[in-house]
Each structure stands twice: as C-alpha cells, then as structure tokens.
Amino acid sequence: MNDFDFLAGTWGVANRWRTDFLDDSSEWEEFPGVSEAARHFDGTARIDEITFPTKGFAGLTLRLYHPATRHWSCTGPDLDHRLADGPHQADLTAAIDNRYLWIGDS
C-alpha cells in the first residue's frame, strides 16, 4: 500500500487557527510545526507525528490498512492526553475517486 507515501519524511509545516474557535470572523493565528511521517509493514501501517514547538503540544496519527475491507483505520492520540479519538475507518478508494480525502466514521 502506498496511499499515504506523499506524507513520508520530515516537513516544516505552517498552521493556523482562529483566535476564537466559535467566531468565524476572528483573526487567524499562524504558528510553525514539524511533521514526521514513516511507512511500516510494506505500507500497511503509517505513523505520523506532528509537533508545534511554539505551542508546546504534539499529536500522533496511526493508520492501519485492512486488506479484507479495503479500509484504513485512523487513531490520533495527543501528547497531553495520550488518548485516541477513534479508530475511525474509511474507504480510501472511494474518497480518492471523489477527489477528496476524508478519514472519519464510515
């Protein structure tokens, strides 16, 4: 599997979020991050880590491919809570066919 090969490597990334998450007219705050992604088990497992040095937090994504269902499961613990919000599953083939990528509840 090579669905997420484009993420592999170490990347400097630019992030932004609204200063008030509930107000879509609030200002944008921009901050840097570093993303590191690696491919394991012939591409059927992916681990992506992102750190935000100026914010003091980080996150991790674990993606596992299930050949029988052709679904990826996606789990994302964070540095503070070490809890996962999933796993969520999605049919990546259908997402690519529709020209978008969405990993969420299927």
Strand content: over 45%
- Termini Cα gap: 20 Å
How many domains would you count in the coordinates?
A: 1
Number of helices: 1
Task: Kindly report the average pLDDT value.
Answer: 77
Describe this structure in words.
The chain is mainly β. The chain has one domain (5-97). It has one helix at 92-97; strands at 9-18, 28-40, 45-52, 57-66, 71-75, 88-91. Strands 1-2-3-4-5-6 form a six-stranded antiparallel beta sheet. The two termini are 20 Å apart. The model is unreliable at 94-106 (pLDDT under 50).
Secondary structure topology:
Layout (H helix, E strand, L loop, with lengths): L8 E10 L9 E13 L4 E8 L4 E10 L4 E5 L12 E4 H6 L9
Antiparallel strand pairs: 1-2, 2-3, 3-4, 4-5, 5-6
Structure in a nutshell:
With 106 residues, this protein is mainly beta.
Structural descriptors:
disordered C terminus, mainly beta
